[in-house]
Amino acid sequence: MNEFLYKASIITAVAFLFYKIFLQRESFFTANRIYLIGCLVLTFTLPFLSLPALINHQGYLATVLPQNSSTEENSARVNARQLAAERSVQHTSANPSVAASKLIYQDPALPQEASQQPIATTEYSFGFWLFTLYLFGVAVFSGSLLVQLGNILYRIRQSADKIQDGTIVIVNATQPQAPCSFFNFVFIYPDVYDFETYEHIISHEKIHARLYHSLDLLLAEIAAILLWFNPFIWLLKKEIEKNNEYQTDAFMVEKVQVNKQQYQLNLLQIAVPNRPLSITTNYNQSVLKQRIMMMNAKRSTPHAYWKYSFLVPVFFGTLLLLNKPASSREMSGNNIQNNPLPVESADPLQKANPQSEKQPNARDESSIGNYTDSKTDMSSGYWYSHQDKENYCLEFKGSQGNSQWNMSRCFRKDSFKKTGDNSFVLTKDAGTMQLNGNLLAEVSQGKYTFTENKDFANYLAANSTPSQEKNLVLFLFFADVNRQYLEFLKSHYQTLDGQRLLEIAIHDIGLTEFQGYIALFEQYNHKKPSMSEIIEAKIHGVDQQYVQQMEKMGFSGLSMKKIIEAKIHGIEPGYVQHLKDAGLANLSLDKVIEAKIHDVNPNSVKELKALGFADLNLTKMIELNIHGVTPTYIQELQSAGLKNITLQQALEAKIHGLDAGSIKELRALGFTNVSFDEIRNARIHGVDASFVKGLKEAGLPGLTIEKAIEAKIHAIDGTFIQAAKKKGYDFTSIDKYISLKIHNQAIESLKE
Q1: Domain that residue 88 falls in
Q2: From start to end residue, where is composition biased (Polar residues) (predicted)?
Q3: C-alpha distances in Å from residue 502, one per residue of 329, 470, 481
Q4: CA–CA distance from 376 to each of 183, 431, 576, 684 (Å)?
Q5: Domain tally for the chain?
């Protein structure tokens, strides 16, 4: 939410400054009105739009804006851990020696065991109080708007002196007030004006009503409520009010053709201090001098419209700077925790590196469980174990019954040291895990305690940025992130981000694997990758094996970004080979990705080639798929008589909703030799079997399809012809009926 407000504020500032610099002095009041209202729309839509990657450092402003509130971050981290939990479930199904993390949420209504957990105290950050202040401002200004609306409705309802003037209702006030209008209601205190001034005021407010200026002000008021802290939204609102007055004054002088000097004198005459409501369009505002100057200014020439041509590059550039590219936004930079990946993205990872779990000397596989709050203390709880060959597979929980969190994993048996009859210890750089209970039994349970290694924790605090995660050291323990690993990261990156370290643990990226990713990026990107880029590659299952597969497919010289994009869209050797087997040559990776996105089936390519379309290429196949042109559809058109139809004609037929049934209906009416163009044009103009039948029954049996189309264009049908015959116009040619319709009157010379 915070990020949206920052972005909306920046867009508002850009919109206002562009208007002040380029447009405010122009007399294109209608164009300026469209621009100003359009800016309100862009303010609340552009923050949600993303473009494909087009430039370097795209979305730079998004990386320097303050991040979302701690509440949102906590929620995002929970989602990230849920991904890891689901991922570890797949580990278990692939290899029983690796247990899965499980996600169990604490229900407030759960019985005693769950309720025995200590209740964490709520801590409110500076961001929370800032957001609370924002909501308070929204509530205050919203209340002000509701009061104004209520005031207007009350005055309309209570007034006994209302006059209906066409679509306008004139509400005569009983006490002095400045004249104003709200949609089709005009409020005025008539006792203080002479007749001419009164007429000017009413004409002025009628123009406001006819142009729906009240809608502009209402939209501006709502925008100001949502961005009340931003001074530029109030300035933009003021410009909307002023432009509405300029537009109305121009109508008065040019359309109503009032005397300009007298009209301006009336503006000054009624300049009274009674201020109307801010959501009403009012005759008297505090911009009289500017309005009079604008009325007397020379009108802008059409050549000045060139200034509007800068709108597209200005807002396009703003969009590029604000929002990260659509293809990588969810997985790069600081947005990893804000936009967690779908669970399915973990599948390719397991397929890409199936050997890692089978190495006899490999480190313990780990995965991070999920829980309801990053401040939950997981340093002690309960464990449940069963033996699986050379492993102890343990489940860790916060309580014996239903727990706030639940995490499962397997350890090699020789990694534990027995320290007593019912005490076992596992020690790593990050800390010590002590299990109390009979771990040697086939199935057992007990309590556990995790103790952080103070030296490791101090080293971590001194060499990395803080993390909101209370259990970061425990997660690093499970992922086997030790001091050697941290030293390696420190040697490659000036700053170790605590959140990135958590993600490394969540996605189980070991030191050797991390080093491999660095080498991979340096080989194909020719630069050292960021930690976020490596995490992104890991999540999508991009490794050395997949890169080599891409090269074997014929796609060489690719950047890692493009390789990751291919993996995201499921580009595999089998799919590319099937496209080649179908006869599609010179395949570029971008086109293959596009084909995959639009679900191009290689079998359909073969079927279309079998129908005689030998020159079919992937670009045309993608276009066919987008519009739903299938081999079956083309065969139906051919069976309806379009034997020599081309692919382009098939596309046009599908776009215009032409099918075999409609073609057969036309042919059944005697149009046996019609071409595709004639059938398509008939479909475009709505010439169907019932229309043609009506013309023939009205006395035009020899009608051609071209003449039927002409008749439809001129709205001549059977009913029109029957009515013309009753008036004495009995023709055998559709052309004469067309002439009769065009002239729309009785022409004696046409009668026969």
Answers
A1: 76-112+340-531
A2: 329-340, 367-377
A3: 19, 11, 10
A4: 56, 18, 48, 65
A5: 1
